[in-house]
Amino acid sequence: MPELPEVETIVRQLAPVVAGQTITQAGSHPSAKFSSAADAIDTQIHKVFRRGKYILFTLSNQHELIVHLGMTGKLQLVRAPDANDAYIRAWWQLSNGKRLELHDVRRFGRVAVVRAGEYATLPTLAALGPEPLDSSFNAEMFWKASRASRRAIKTQLLSQRLLAGIGNIYADEALWRAEIHPAARQLTKSQAETLRQELAVVIENAIKHGGTTLRDYRSLDGSTGENQHHLECYGRHGEACLRCGEPLARMVIDGRGTTFCKSCQKR
DNA sequence: CGCAGCGCCTGAAGGC
DNA sequence: TGCCTTCAGGCGCTGC
Description:
Blueprint (H helix, E strand, L loop, with lengths): L3 H15 L3 E7 L14 E9 L2 E6 L3 E6 L4 E6 L9 E7 L4 E6 L5 E6 L7 H4 L12 H9 L5 H6 L9 H11 L10 H20 L40 E5 L2 E5 L7
Antiparallel strand pairs: 1-2, 1-6, 2-3, 3-4, 4-8, 5-7, 6-7, 9-10
This protein binds a DNA duplex through loops.
C-alpha cells in the first residue's frame, strides 16, 4: 500500500525521466476509474510532483494528470507493452519511445485529468491536510486541528484531512513511537507535539529506506523498499514490544487492523 | 458540513 | 488436494 514515502520515492525517480515528454498516445481499462487517461493525449508533461499519496503531472494545456496508486498500484516505464500482463489499467506513450504504465491488480487506484488545481472530482485531494514534512506543519496547528474532530486519532490520521499521506503502516508506527493509544479521542498539547515529531521521523526514515514493501509495493524501476526491515510496530502483533517487552496487541479501528502496545500506549 | 456505512477489487491464506 | 470463506484496506459515494 503506497503511502507518502513510497509515492515520494516513485516521484523522485519519475520526475527527471518524464519531464518534458509529450504524451502521444494513451489508453486504459474501461472502468471510469482509469478511462480519463486518454484525456492527456497531445499534451507535454511540464513537471511531476506529489501531494499526500497523489502523483500529479503538470500538463502543457493548463490541466493536471493525477494518479493515485490505491492499494496495489505501481508505475513502470517500459519499451514495449507486455501482452501477458493483464493488470495494466492505464498507459501513456511518451515521445522518447518509452511507455508509462499503471499496473494495478486490485483496481483501487485511479486516474484523473482535471483543470490545474480544480479537484472537485477528487474530494480527498481537495480537502487534503498539510504535508507532514512541510515547515508550515507546526505543532500548534496540528493540535488545534486534531481537537476539531471527536474521532479516534488513528481515524483522523488516515482521513488525509488532518495531514496528508499517512496510511495504516505509518499511523501505527507513529502512534507507537509517540506512546499514544490509537483510539484516543482528544490529544493533549504535549501529545500532539510528540505525535507531530514522530510522524516526521517515521516518514523521513521510510523515505531514506526507499519505502516499505510488504508485498506489492515497487518503485519505478521495480525494486522493493527496505523499510519493512525497520518497522517497530506495524504487523508485529503478538510479538514483543521493542520498548517494554509486552506482546503487542491488535484491534480494529474503523475497519482497519491496528497494532499497538497496551502497556505503552495508554488511553 | 461532518461522518458512519458501504462497495469496489483480487490474490493469499486459512479452514475443513 | 481442492473448494470455500475470510481477509487485506484507500477512497469515493450516499445519506443521515
